[in-house]
Design a protein that fits this description.
Blueprint: E1 2-5, E2 21-25, H1 29-39, H2 45-50, E3 69-73, E4 81-83, H3 85-88, E5 91-92, E6 95-96, E7 109-116, E8 125-126, H4 128-138, E9 147-151, H5 161-165, E10 169-170, H6 172-180, E11 185-188, H7 197-207, H8 215-218, E12 226-229, E13 241-246, E14 257-259, E15 263-266
Parallel strand pairs: 7-9, 8-10, 9-11, 11-12
Antiparallel strand pairs: 1-15, 2-3, 4-12, 4-14, 5-6, 7-13, 13-15
Length: 267
């Protein structure tokens, strides 16, 4: 068995719309942090700590090192993640939308299918005809609960402004077609399922046409589905189908998305 990592990390080195910040407390700094945690809960302890008093010295700790600690301040849409129906709107198919903790796990583990659109480039968009042609090219008929991975190779631009502003998205008609085949989970290797958001913003402000705003996302208000964004390495999957995908999301309370470690499992 071979496992291929399809994920991008939560990276505080990326400067994006919702940038992450990670506080990293090293093993050495952890000794001082331990003192602060204990002393701040004592009467007058915080004042004594700020004056330099310590109740535990480094030489009292094995190797003068505590456990490392990272505190992540991040949108749930940084790094590879799953968007739940709640992200699209409060209602889906006339019912309260599923949040990330409500997502059926059966949607997040199953047969994978890669559709290759790496020949497309910004500002092109993936149409219904493109999806049908891609399936015909690989000789595959979609089955209910297949996990469809949309390859654009957009992950190759990670860390650049092109990753944020110049990627290939999906037309809502293409998403409709996938849902008609019983698909509940779609994944894409770009920052978003729709066209670049600033393109949508500019056109909306010019025309005041609400249909221009996140049409593939807002489709989730009519038809229930979930999707992954910010995938990577789809070109490393050796087959277009005949493999498994696992994309179990982190359970974030009352959230519309959750980070995931998406992988392809090759038997």
């Amino acid at each position: 068995m071979k496992i291929i990592d399809l994920s991008t990390p939560i990276d505080d080195g990326l400067r994006e719309t919702h940038a992450a910040k990670i506080d990293r407390i090293t093993h050495r700094d952890g000794v001082d942090h331990f003192n602060w945690v204990i002393m701040k809960n004592q009467d007058g302890g915080l004042e004594r700590f700020e004056k330099g008093e310590r109740i535990v010295a480094p030489d009292e700790i094995p190797d003068a090192e505590m456990l490392s600690l990272e505190i992540v301040h991040s949108s749930v849409h940084m790094g590879s993640h799953v968007d739940a129906p709640y992200h699209y709107g409060s209602q889906s198919e006339g019912k309260p939308s599923k949040k990330i903790e409500d997502l059926p796990l059966e949607w997040c583990y199953g047969p994978g299918v890669v559709l290759d659109f790496s020949f497309k480039s910004y500002p092109e968009i993936i149409s219904k005809d493109d999806v049908e042609n891609a399936l015909e090219d690989i000789g595959y008929k979609l089955n209910s609960l297949d996990i469809v991975l949309i390859r654009t190779d957009g992950d190759q631009m990670l860390g650049t402004q092109n990753y944020v502003n110049r990627y290939v998205g999906m037309a809502p008609e293409a998403v409709h077609f996938l849902l008609d085949q019983g698909i509940k989970m779609i994944g894409i290797d770009t920052i978003g399922l729709d066209r670049p958001c600033f393109d949508m913003f500019r056109e909306f402000l010019d025309k005041r046409d609400t249909s221009l705003l996140w049409p593939a996302h807002f489709l989730g208000r009519q038809r229930e589905f979930a999707h992954m964004e910010r995938l990577a390495n789809l070109k490393s999957i050796p087959y277009s189908h005949g493999f498994l995908v696992s994309c179990l999301p982190v359970r974030v309370k009352d959230a519309g998305a959750g980070w995931c470690r998406a992988v392809a499992i090759i038997e």
